[in-house]
Design goal:
The chain is built from ten helices and nine strands. With 330 residues, it is an alpha/beta fold. It has two domains: 130 residues, no CATH class; 165 residues, Rossmann fold. It is elongated, with a radius of gyration of 26 Å.
Length: 330
């Protein structure tokens, strides 16, 4: 490839992207940019030329994301009252457009980056003589998404608490099937955002942290991020097997960590590390564990983090799914 060819392409590409109204037009520009960038790498035409071509690719992906956000797609599904013939509306699918779900998701995330921040990232990367990539611009998008998720959390209660029971809304990367996605039962949170939370813990406190088996490492990371040192764990045997890639999971961990000067319970109040009770509703934990914690630490100031359902007497509950007080029949 001659440098002149690349320069001519660069001089026209941005304008063509801005004027593009059709996803296929943008894809042609993007694919050509990728081809020319690969040629520039092979012919050792220098980082500047490669980054100039990568910039066109990013602008094309951003424009593709904008178009996709404005495009009504045929996502299939069962008929509804509003949409009785979901397969017969004449709407395009991503497959019709020759786009994968991942590409669609990534391009729309790039399109969500404010234009000034998008341009700033490109300019700073080029000024620092670093390689310009889609992966790095997606990291910019990710940081913005994390900030938005944190902003949407509800305020923590006043005061400080020394006995905490937490059931994080885990976000799984690979749900076994759509029907088992956690988001169908309650809103989830990104792992990094859970770690960034600053609940009102006393300087001397104990944390009981529910943790599904596949999330064990993340649970330990969260505990450490919140300032607790892992001490032990208990097991809830749910008596019936659930889903799983490696094992059909039948249990859940209850991790225990402390911070500051916090003592174990009296010897007569130390429970078995295994408790058996049949699972019921999704994520609902046995009342046994609330009773256990209260008996272990009868003088504690109790806080339930990520509470779902009924707020228990003597506990302060924080979460977006507290539906009523214990004993409230309404």
């Amino acid at each position: 490839m001659e440098e002149k060819t690349a320069l001519v392409y660069l001089s026209n590409a941005k304008q063509q992207i801005e004027m593009a109204k059709d996803i296929h037009e943008v894809k042609i520009i993007r694919n050509k940019a990728i081809t020319l960038q690969e040629l520039a790498q092979r012919q050792k035409m220098g980082l500047k030329m490669q980054n100039d071509l990568a910039e066109i690719r990013l602008y094309a992906e951003r424009r593709a994301g904008e178009i996709l956000k404005e495009t009504e797609l045929n996502n299939g599904g069962r008929p509804t009252e509003e949409n009785p013939f979901p397969e017969d509306r004449g709407l395009p699918t991503l497959k019709d457009m020759g786009i994968s779900w991942k590409e669609s998701s990534n391009w729309q995330r790039i399109a969500n980056i404010p234009e000034d921040l998008f341009i700033k990232h490109i300019e700073e990367t080029k000024d620092d003589e670093r390689e310009l990539t889609t992966i790095d611009i997606l990291k910019v998008a990710r940081k913005l998404e994390l900030k938005e998720e944190i902003k949407e959390t509800i305020p923590f209660p006043e005061g400080v608490f020394d006995v905490i029971l937490a059931d994080p809304p885990w976000r799984y990367e690979h749900p076994i099937s759509i029907s088992r996605q956690i988001e169908q039962n309650y809103p989830t949170m990104d792992m990094e955002n859970i770690k960034l939370l600053s609940p009102p813990f006393h300087e001397n406190a104990i944390l009981f942290l529910w943790c599904p088996a596949p999330m064990l490492k993340h649970g330990l990371d969260i505990m450490e991020s919140w300032g607790f040192t892992f001490r032990t764990n208990a097991i809830w045997d749910k008596t019936s097997i659930g889903p799983g890639y490696w094992f059909r999971t039948q249990h859940e961990h209850l991790l225990v960590g402390i911070k500051g000067d916090f003592h174990p319970p009296d010897a007569k109040l130390r429970y078995s590390s295994v408790y058996q009770e049949k699972r019921t509703e999704h994520s609902k934990k046995p009342l046994f564990y609330y009773d256990m914690v209260e008996k272990m630490y009868p003088d504690g100031k109790y806080l339930e983090l990520f509470g779902r359902g009924i707020k228990r007497k003597n506990w302060t509950a924080w979460g977006n799914e507290i539906i009523k007080e214990e004993g409230d029949g309404n």
